Automatic annotation (TrEMBL):
Gene3D superfamilies according to UniProt: Metal-dependent hydrolases (3.20.20.140), Urease, subunit C, domain 1 (2.30.40.10)
GO terms, molecular function: hydrolase activity, acting on carbon-nitrogen (but not peptide) bonds
Domain Amidohydrolase-related: 64-432
PANTHER family documented for this protein: AMIDOHYDROLASE-RELATED DOMAIN-CONTAINING PROTEIN, AMINOHYDROLASE SSNA-RELATED
Domain of life of the organism encoding this protein: Bacteria
Name of the featured protein: Cytosine/adenosine deaminase-related metal-dependent hydrolase
Keywords annotated in UniProt: Hydrolase
Amino acid sequence: MTAAHPVTVHSARIVVPMTAPPIADGAVAVQDGRILHVGDRSWVVDQLAGSGTSFTERRWRGALLPGLVNAHSHLQYTGMASVGQRQYDGFEDWALAFNEDYAEPHDWQAEAAAGAAASILAGVTSIADIVTDIEASNALETYGLGGIAYWEVMDWENDAWQAHGRDQVLAELERIPTTPGAGLSPHAPYSLDVAPLLELPDIVRQRGLRLHLHLGEAAFEGERIALGPVPGLEGVDGVGHGSDWHLANVPSFRAMRALGFGASATVFVDRLGVLGPDCHIAHGVYMTAADRALLRARGTAVALCPRSNAVIGLDPPPVADYLREGSPIAIGTDSLASSPSLDLMADVTALHRIARAQGYGHRDLHERLLAAATLGGAHAMGLAVGPDRIGHLAVGARADLAVFDVDARTVPDAMAELVEDGSGRAVVTVIRGVVRAADGALVPHPTPQEEP
């Protein structure tokens, strides 16, 4: 008779399941990398005792949450931290600095690995990782992280795409590891012509994969309203509201703008069929209420990256509007090329500050931002449901946990402390039931061949 696999009970003063009310003096029982029980510590212990199940308890100080989900990052740019430590005067200014550093020699595999390690130390257990160079594509798999590696596609014009671009991307996609998950990232509407933007979603959907793109990050992606007649386009006065730009057979977003049409980048990619429930976007800064409504209509979540926006010199994201309107939001750090750290809780704190400054006064802000950093990221990548679901503490879900050092004794005070000053507080990270980081140090991770 085979012995039952061991059970570990992770208990803490406060447990926040995300899909159930927070629990004072709670516990999570874990077996075979999955959650067996969640609830009051006394109830969990009684359940195990009643079934004759032996267990080992690990009592953690602070608040126990689902592992954080970083919904937008580029791990391979971890070695470009010198770029992210500066301040810029806008997207073009930042892009010059980025391109200069990117052209220098880099060990993308090693830098992506360093980013994965830093993420685990910060309580992150799953990542939407945008991969530009194939050497960096296996960071999630190597470190046992969850999430999706999105192969980035950019700088394709229509003729080149039709001649050989599609075949090249298909070949590159075959090289992206499918563990933990693979997808495609059409970079942005201004870096790809119409032909690739039309075909890339089809390529992804035919394979049951996911899409992720930058959208509404740069100010020039926002809607433009003409103040008078557009030279050379008689009868197009008032572009930006109902103009039939798509009937002009424009070859690209930039060409559309050059012709005087003012439709936003969000409207542009939606007309091409990019948005949908299998797609999430990053940034979403320069969007009107109509753009945000379009995202909701398509079931497309947005990953907000406030610290990255601040470094680049962009406006803050309209987080208060997203919250009031009920838009699905997630949170991302972006990369060290545009952010001070890979600590997702620092972005949670930044969003709290921005939301209050924008007039969001509801008492649910702490809860909603913590949900965005966990369940919201899982939802954005289609990983909140199914057999390998993440982002919440529930029976059968993957046992990805994070413990944060908070002093508060009550649930509301602990959540406020964590949201308003959560940076640097991660003390334990558990991935698939295995402690991977504790007290600021990584715990050695067995290779796939060594795992039981």
